[in-house]
Amino acid sequence: MTDNPSYKERKVITIGVVSELTGLTERQIRYYEERKLIFPERSPRGNRKYSFADVEQLVEIANKREEGVQTYEIRQDMLKAQRLRDEKRNRKELLRGEINARFGIQKN
């Protein structure tokens, strides 16, 4: 994440508001955190803080659970998607490096 995250990535929403927005109970939200499906930040006082992106992720998780998908499967799908994003980013950086080397472009 960048030093200046977009409004969608800023972790500023409390668990109570997330519960209202998603229709999930606070216990369900904490359970999804335990299952490593969602990663809230903690305030200095220890309160969980979520982003709008987290809210969207929780809605997706809830929809998949309603379809009967287990949390383990959801986590595996998330890990696979992250690996694909990482591989794509790595290929892009490698290609950029090859182009820079081929044409003598120096990074300052």
Ordered list of secondary-structure elements with their pairings:
Blueprint: E1 13-14, H1 15-22, H2 26-34, E2 41-42, E3 48-50, H3 52-66, H4 71-103
Antiparallel strand pairs: 1-3, 2-3
Mean pLDDT equals 92
| Alpha carbon gyration radius | 18 Å
Query: Number of helical segments?
Result: 4
CATH topology of the largest domain: Multidrug-efflux Transporter Regulator, Chain: A, Domain 2
- Largest sheet, spatial ordering of strands: 1-3-2
Parts with pLDDT < 50 across at least 5 consecutive residues? none
**CATH class annotation of the largest domain:** Mainly Alpha
How much of the sequence lies in strands comes to 5-15%
The multimeric state of the shown protein is single chain
> Could you give a short account of the major beta sheet?
3 strands, antiparallel
H/E order of the elements?
EHHEEHH
Number of strands: 3
CATH architectural arrangement of the largest domain: Orthogonal Bundle
Question: What structural class do you assign from the helix and strand content?
Answer: mainly alpha
Number of domains: 2
**Gap between N and C termini:** 22 Å
Percent of residues in helices: 55-70%
Overall body shape: elongated
Description:
The protein has 108 residues and is mainly α. It has two domains: 1-69, Multidrug-efflux Transporter Regulator, Chain: A, Domain 2 (Orthogonal Bundle); 70-108. It has four helices and three strands, in the order βααββαα. The protein has a three-stranded antiparallel sheet with strand order 1-3-2. It starts with 12 loop residues before the first strand and ends in a 5-residue tail after the last helix.
